[in-house]
Design goal:
By secondary structure, this protein is of the alpha/beta class. It contains 15 helices and 13 strands. It starts with a strand and ends in an 8-residue tail after the last helix.
């Protein structure tokens, strides 16, 4: 079982281990902390489909509801392992590892690095251990893909004493990027996957990564997932002097500022109507605020592509993934418009259909749309760490 805990939801998937990984079902508990929290499950068989209200005032209660459902299905006896997406591994964790008491202690220490995510993720780990004490659990860190960034890319230009405290560029969406690199190698071969690649994971959270010889050399998110391009409700990069200005002009506290840049900014802040790109595209013809939100998003992603092409010394492959990257042809078109100087040319018909390959025959850069799958990446990592089955590599 894979567990992906968010700020207001817990997503999960169940895989059968054999010669390959077969997804049996997937689902989640949504709207944690609200009266209308619900458990929804979709399986291979109609009988596995579930949609029902649950009492989930917090993540611990939600996890209890999920485990109760597992025991109702008698799946608990069949579980061989649980893999968790852990948003932050700090400077220590560079690869998936089996969870130990020592690791949980270290994650508690790291909680200030990701206060919106890590405390809830630790609760999920501890609750699973309480209910199934003998079940192996594996932590898959979202920062691990970027762990070995070149020093020039990971250093933050603040006093050096903070580096000793672990303050550096970490980057996120690592599970997605690892999956995309495996899929790219499967599609185009090892030689292509060793080239100069920009991966763009564009969803509610959005980031880009520059990859060369299979290794992350830079990424748009930084010490926290707030940095980089504007997102659904996150601001992306800001002038740090804005905090002092708002503290003076509005008496804004650090916590209020953090809430603003995490939950009230990005597409929601600019449009004042919605954080969902689908809504904004529908409204942009009549609503200038929606039009400006979509324009800002595309402009900033385009800038990061240009910057990373410079860092890579050129570009061979551009990959779009995530809810927006996979399903919004118009956004991909606007991002790529004007990037012909880098060798990027789209096939308009293929792009309109969300085809796997959306670059034109004359494009010097291969542009792909790859549907990312963090849950499958977690499951692959768990089977490798625990030597489960005889999984064929992709």
């Amino acid at each position: 079982m894979t567990i992906n805990g968010g700020s207001s939801s817990i997503k999960f998937a169940l895989f059968e281990v054999g010669d390959s990984l077969r997804r049996i079902l997937e689902g989640g508990i949504e709207r944690i902390g609200l009266p209308e929290a619900a458990l929804r499950v979709k399986g291979l068989n109609q009988a596995d489909n579930v949609s029902r209200s649950v009492a989930a005032p917090n993540h611990k209660a939600a996890m209890g509801a999920l485990i109760d459902w597992i025991e109702e299905r008698s799946e608990s006896d069949a579980l061989t392992a649980v893999g968790h997406r852990v948003v932050h591994g700090g400077p220590k964790y560079s690869k998936p590892e089996r969870i130990t008491v020592g690791m949980v202690d270290e994650l508690h220490r790291l909680s200030p690095f990701a206060p919106e995510h890590l405390p809830e993720e630790i609760l999920l780990i501890e609750e699973f251990h309480r209910r199934f004490p003998g079940l192996p659990q594996v932590a898959c860190f979202d920062t691990a893909f970027h762990h070995d960034l070149p020093r020039v890319a990971r250093l933050l230009p603040i006093p050096r004493r903070y580096e000793a405290q672990g303050v550096r560029r970490y980057g996120f969406h690592g599970l997605s990027y690892e999956f995309l690199m495996e899929e790219l190698a499967n599609l185009d071969g090892t030689e292509v996957s060793q080239g100069r690649i920009i991966l763009s994971h564009l969803g509610n959270g959005a980031s880009l990564a520059a990859v060369h010889r299979g290794t992350s050399v830079d990424t748009s998110m930084s010490f926290t997932p707030i940095a980089g391009v504007p997102m659904s409700t996150r601001s992306g990069d800001l002038d740090p002097g804005l905090l002092w200005y708002l503290a003076c002009s509005e008496k804004m506290t650090a916590k209020q500022f953090n809430d603003m840049v995490n939950f009230q900014s990005g597409m929601l802040g600019i449009s004042e109507t919605s954080s969902d790109m689908r809504d904004l595209l529908e409204r942009e013809a009549e609503d200038v605020r929606a039009a400006e939100a979509t324009a800002l998003f595309c402009y900033q992603v385009k800038k990061w592509i240009g910057a990373f092409a410079a860092a890579l010394g050129g570009l061979d492959t551009l990959v779009f993934a995530g809810g927006i990257g996979e399903n919004a042809p118009l956004i991909r078109e606007r991002i790529c418009d004007g990037l012909g100087f880098l060798g990027i040319e789209l096939n308009q018909k293929g792009n309109a259909k969300n085809a796997p390959l959306v670059s034109s025959d004359s494009s010097r850069v291969t542009v792909r749309v790859i549907r990312t799958d963090e849950e499958l990446m977690i499951a692959r990592s768990v089977t490798r760490i625990l030597n489960l089955g005889t999984i064929r590599e992709p």
